[in-house]
Amino acid sequence: MKSVLLIGLGRFGRHMAEKLQELHHEVLAVDRNEQRVNEILPLVTNAQIGDSTNEQFIESLGIRNFDLCVVAIGDDFQSSLETTALLKEHGAPFVLARASRDVHAKFLLRNGADDVIYPEKQMASWAAVRYSADHIFDYIELSDGHSIFETAVPSAWVGKTIVELAVRQKYHINILAAKYDGRLEPLPGPAHRFRGDETIFILGSNRDVQRFVSL
Q: How far apart are CA 50 and CA 79, in angstroms?
């Protein structure tokens, strides 16, 4: 369990607060808007109304006691920048900041953010990959060149085993798991026989995976 300070309770901040609490982390949520704070209070460990660009307010929070500080301010970049800087100045061990543009990310990183996320950009990339192919159901980007995909089993694979298909040698992909009827089988062995209504989780270079899903 981690102690998390979450600043900014717009849509992104609210969803993140709810998920963090669901994962049993201690969450202190902060926003200048009283209504947002009152709405989130029943869903988190604690919530406060306050201006995160005010140094006295930031100092009062005991920043060093938090394992993670999240700056989720999405509608005021100047406030996001000032908040990030103040958090690091007061000893925040790790600051995660939200950015909506590349130039924002550069300034946030220069002002002390340890990492930056792009919710809209990341979701747009996910949707483009997910819905531009008929057989991809989900994917996780691991690097610029490699990803994990959940995809349908090719019809030519049905009834055959991993070893019979020589999956790694022929397709240059690794099968991490198979899912059938809601049940997940991690790291299926070479004798695993594929079914038509099964999905598989595969890891490989994006080029090899795209070639595979076009079968």
A: 12
Contact by Cβ (8 Å): 7, 69: yes
Q: What are the pLDDT digits (tens) for 81-128?
A: 999 999 999 999 999 999 888 888 889 999 899 999 887 767 777 677
Closest by CA position to 204, among listed 155, 149, 157: 149
Structure tokens at 55: 């140094």
The owner of tokens 């999905």 is 199
Collapsing DSSP to helix, strand or coil, 107 comes out as helix
Looking at residue 114, what DSSP letter applies? S
Tokens matching residue 15 = 């969803």
- The single residue listed with the structure tokens 């926003």 is 31
- Is beta strand 68-71 parallel, antiparallel or unpaired with respect to 199-205? unpaired
Q: Residues with Cβ < 8 Å from 52, sequence gap 6 or more? A: 7, 8, 30, 32, 58, 71, 73, 79, 82, 83, 86
* Nearest Cα residue to 30 out of 4, 45, 52, 3: 52
pLDDT digits (tens, 9 = 90+) for 185-207: 999 999 999 998 999 999 999 88
15: left (phi over 0), alpha (psi -120 to 50) or beta: alpha
Cα 165 from chain centre: 33
